[in-house]
Structure formats: C-alpha cells, structure tokens
Design brief:
GIY-YIG endonuclease; 181 residues; two-stranded antiparallel ribbon; alpha+beta
Length: 181
Amino acid sequence: MTTQTDITSLASLEDIPYLDEAGKLPDMLQGKIGVYAIFDREKVLQFVGYSRDVYLSLKQHLARQPQNCHWLKVQTIERPNRTILENTLNAWIAENDATPSGNGEDKQKWTESIDVKPLMTDEEKANYEKTSWDEVAQAKVLKNVARRVEAEILAQVKSRGCQEEIRFNPKLKDSGLLDLK
C-alpha cells in the first residue's frame, strides 16, 4: 500500500508475467485498486494506467493491444484516492524518462473501444459505401467487419496461450466498435 508522500518507484517493483503458465491474468488483482505499468516482450514500458479494478483493466488492454502486453508491475492501494493514483502514474512516467507510446500518441488504442472502420478491407469499404443510403445494411456490414476483427484479436490472444474468457459487447458491433462486455 502507498501513501501520497510514499510513492514506490517503478524500478523497485517486481516484474509479473501478464499471463501465467496457465494462460491466466494475475488473480490477485481482481477487484484491486491500483496503478499498473504494462511492458512489451523486451520489457519496454508501453502504458501506465490506474483503475478501480486492475484485473478488468488488464483484460481490456490485452484485448486492445495483445502484442504489447507481456509484463506488468502493479502498486495497489486499499481505498480509492485519485490524487495518490495520479501522482504514482506521473512519477512512473517521469522515472521512465520518456512518455510511453500508450500514454502519448497511441493513448486511444489503449483506452478507447476498437474502431473497426479503419481496419476494413477494400471489399468491405466498397460494400459499406454501396449501402450509404441504408443504415440497416451499413450496420450489417460494420457488424461483419467487427466479427472478422474480433476473430483476429481472439486468435492473437489465444496464440499467446491465454485461457481467459474474452467476450466483446455484441451491442457495439453494429456501430463498428469492439469493447469487452
């Protein structure tokens, strides 16, 4: 546990595998409030965030950025305190000497629903434009694109050995968005 004046340095925290040998996220983080740092395979810092449920946030990041989620460091606190969380987040970014891409130019990829529109194939774009007069038909095209992208993400996550259940919200697919349910 940390206090506002006692911020644990990022370097002093242990590296935790994002997925354990059984392909699961760290169970000890379920329902825990804290600050977390996510690292890629080479242990390069990719993103620093904080959450009221670190476990759920880690699951969301794994679905959005599976190729960048290999290691993590976590500092939990007992009670929600935005000041402590933000101060720790800022201290860790400063300690890194550079803003991680996930907190800079790629922040949207880490923190927002996946928009499948930019991921459309040429054929999907043509089908979408062909139906510009029909919202229902466009929603169907977007849903199919979302399903294709979802399958690609799930295959990528499974190739990492992940055994977590990852379910995307079906209601968002019509609008071309993917986010965990």
